[in-house]
Structures are given as structure tokens and as C-alpha cells.
Design a protein that fits this description.
Blueprint (H helix, E strand, L loop, with lengths): L6 H14 L3 E5 L11 H14 L4 E5 L7 H10 L3 E3 L9 H4 L5 H13 L3 E8 L5 H13 L4 E6 L16 H14 L3 E4 L9 H4 L4
Parallel strand pairs: 1-2, 2-3, 3-4, 4-5, 5-6
Helix pairs in contact: 1-2, 2-3, 6-7
Length: 209
């Protein structure tokens, strides 16, 4: 069992943002399924404290799925981050092999709920895990139909020997093709290249409407 959330963490985080004079920050967390609210109440404390110490700083909250419980997602929405992100990570077929507990449709529901509440919804996924092109295009379309406004697509890189091996290295040209397709689908911002990660150019995403 992990330790309880550290109440000092929110103070240290808020002060670190102030020290670095950040205009925009992306905050994420580990899953805390061991907590009754999935850690949502601590998330709220963190967001509020950042805003108190850094009133001019905008926030993107990159959240877990909170097991799909909308009351916990709503707590994050009410805390007021400018962007709320939840990554779908991979295509539907590969989800059971790549993600331990999270489910593709549940992640879409999280995005759908965030968007329906009038917040900027953002998501992202990796390629190079053995997905087919038609599956990538379907994922792009599924996210858009769920109300996702901002999309990131990046190359999967094996983080250690005990993780899945890379199946394919996608060319920069193909990443650009996916970017153009997603923009034509209707996304407001699309970051798509081999080294793109969730926070890539995140300071621009707060401008999405």
C-alpha cells in the first residue's frame, strides 16, 4: 500500500511553480485507487493552492480515470484548471495489454464528461505498439466525437527491459500525416511527432475554445 498523500506536497509544488515563474504548468499524478475518492480531494487541494500562490499561472490537470466516477471528475472540474487531460494511451484492441486497469471506453467517457461540462478536454496516445493505421484513425475519430479538443500523438519508447518492446518506429512524415488528418477532423490543437509527450507545447493548449 502506498503512503497517504503528503500535505506538504501541495505547498512545495505551489512554491516551486512560483520559484520557476511558470506561466503555465501541467500537473499529473499516479493512480490512487487505494483512496476512497481516487485522490480527487487531494487534487482539489493542489489546484487551489497553486492558484492561491500563483494567481497568474494557468493549469492543465492530467488526471487518471477515477474509475469513471463522475462525482470525482466533477471535483477536478470545480477546482478550475484551465485544461483537463486524460490520456487514452493506445488503440482499443491493445488496451488490455498496455493498460492494467483502465479501459478504452471508460477513458472516452471521462473525456466526454469533461467536454460536456464546458472544460477544454485533451487526450493523447502512443504509436509503435503494433497498432494498425485504421485503428489509429478510429482512435482519432473516437476522441473527437467524445468532445476532445486537443490531441497529442507520440512514439512509444520502451522504458525498461520488463516493458513491451517497440514494434514499429513511425516516421516523422507519418506523424505529420496523422496531425493533418486530426486537424481536418476538427481538433483545435494537434501535436504529433516522435518525441511528443502529453505536455508538449501545453502552454498553447490553454487557448483552445
Amino acid at each position: 500500500m502506498p503512503l497517504p498523500p503528503d500535505p506538504q506536497e501541495l505547498e512545495l509544488l505551489a512554491e516551486s511553480i512560483k520559484t520557476m515563474k511558470l506561466k503555465h504548468c501541467v500537473i499529473t499524478s499516479v493512480d490512487r485507487d487505494d483512496l476512497s475518492d481516487g485522490g480527487a480531494s487531494f487534487w482539489v487541494e493542489v489546484i487551489k493552492r497553486i492558484k492561491e500562490v500563483n494567481p497568474g499561472t494557468t493549469i492543465e490537470s492530467l488526471i487518471p480515470d477515477f474509475d469513471g466516477k463522475t462525482e470525482h471528475i466533477q471535483m477536478i472540474i470545480d477546482a478550475g484548471p484551465e485544461v483537463i487531460s486524460h490520456n487514452i494511451e493506445t488503440v482499443k484492441r491493445l488496451t488490455p495489454f498496455i493498460r492494467t486497469k483502465a479501459r478504452y471506453d471508460k477513458s472516452l467517457d471521462v473525456i466526454r464528461y469533461i467536454s460536456a461540462k464546458g472544460k477544454i478536454a485533451k487526450s493523447g496516445f502512443m504509436v509503435g505498439l503494433g497498432e494498425k493505421e485504421e485503428e489509429i484513425l478510429k482512435t482519432i475519430n473516437d476522441l473527437y466525437e467524445a468532445g476532445c479538443k486537443i490531441l497529442t500523438i507520440g512514439q512509444y519508447l520502451q522504458p525498461g527491459l520488463n516493458y513491451m518492446e517497440v514494434v514499429d518506429y513511425i516516421t516523422p512524415e507519418k506523424f505529420e500525416e496523422y496531425r493533418v488528418i486530426a486537424l481536418k477532423t476538427g481538433f483545435l490543437f494537434v501535436e504529433s511527432s516522435p518525441l511528443v509527450r502529453s505536455s508538449f507545447h501545453a502552454e498553447n493548449h490553454v487557448k483552445a475554445n
